[in-house]
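Milestone M4 deliverable, item 7.
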Amino acid sequence: MIAESTDSLLGILKWALLALLYLFFARVLWAVWSEVRQRPEQVAHGRTSSPQSVPAAVAAHHTAAPMDPTVPAPMPVAPASVAAQAAPTPEAARRIPKGRRGKVGRLVVTQPRQRKGTAFATTDELSIGRASTSHINLDDDTYASQLHARVFRRDGGVWVEDLGSTNGTFVNGRRITGPTQLSVGDRLQVGNTILEAQ
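Output delivered:
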């Protein structure tokens, strides 16, 4: 009696498992079919990516993650439409003059590509970070801290100082531990963003 009920229970479980497997494969096939069907429509309309195709991990990652300075950090992925909107005009760097007589007059973004050419005049003090109040706002750079670093003028020169960031601030590839003077041509790295002193 017990053996018969066990056999019938195993039979029911076997059919339930098979049904779940068929449902899983049907869902996978439906997802692939939907993607294949939408792909020609996107190409026909000039869209190669959609906001929904951005990895959720990148979109949801808002806190700075520890980073080994010897290993380059992965660049965040952005949809093509966002990158096109954020791209600065070629005149952006021309409006802010370079420094004269070997002095730093501006910082120009060289990486990432969607911000390349954006220039910032070196005023008395500039804050850099993801906070909305930062003078140089890096809200899409997940490796930058809220208040990451500051650039300031002192004794006729331009200096940079890390503000206790998680991943550190680098000048020409070296992590700085205190206020460091910038020279023309120096490359300042904050998170995944690199600015050239000009």
